[in-house]
Design goal:
The protein is built from no helices and eleven strands. Strands 2, 4, 5, 6, 9, 10 and 11 form a seven-stranded mixed sheet that branches. A four-stranded antiparallel sheet has the order 1-3-8-7, with no helix packed on it. By secondary structure, it is an all-beta fold.
Length: 122
């Protein structure tokens, strides 16, 4: 059974850093993965993706501050977040695609975690 479990959220001041982790079960490196977020009263937003062949993409607002990576040996997906801003406050979700599929939009991701809260204060 596929399971995605996020951890690492918390409260930080602006300019601080957090690293989110997503433990993955029953998914291997052949699946593209991504991080999404949803702020109160707003729709879900794609933050970063890492495709099964290794390419990465980010939304403009986090480029240069966030880094997505995966440890295939440990089955963990990471999101390193630096220089955090209050507008980064949201619930963050990890997601996975079917095998051998390039995925970018949230509609293309099949499996989702429950989310972890990130709060950035000014």
């Amino acid at each position: 059974q596929v399971q995605l479990v996020e951890s690492g959220g918390g409260s930080v001041q602006a300019g601080g850093s957090l690293t989110l982790s997503c433990r993955i079960s029953e998914i291997d490196s052949s699946s593209s993965m991504g991080w999404f977020r949803q702020a109160p009263g707003k729709g879900r937003e794609g933050v970063a993706t890492i495709q099964w062949q290794g390419s990465k993409s980010y939304i403009t607002s986090v480029e240069g501050r966030f880094n997505i990576s995966r440890d295939n040996a440990k089955n963990i997906l990471y999101l390193q977040m630096n220089s955090l801003k209050p507008e980064d406050t949201a619930t963050y979700f990890c997601a996975a695609c079917r095998r051998w599929t390039v995925c970018y939009s949230d509609q293309s991701f099949e499996y989702w975690g429950q989310g972890t809260q990130v709060t950035v204060s000014s």
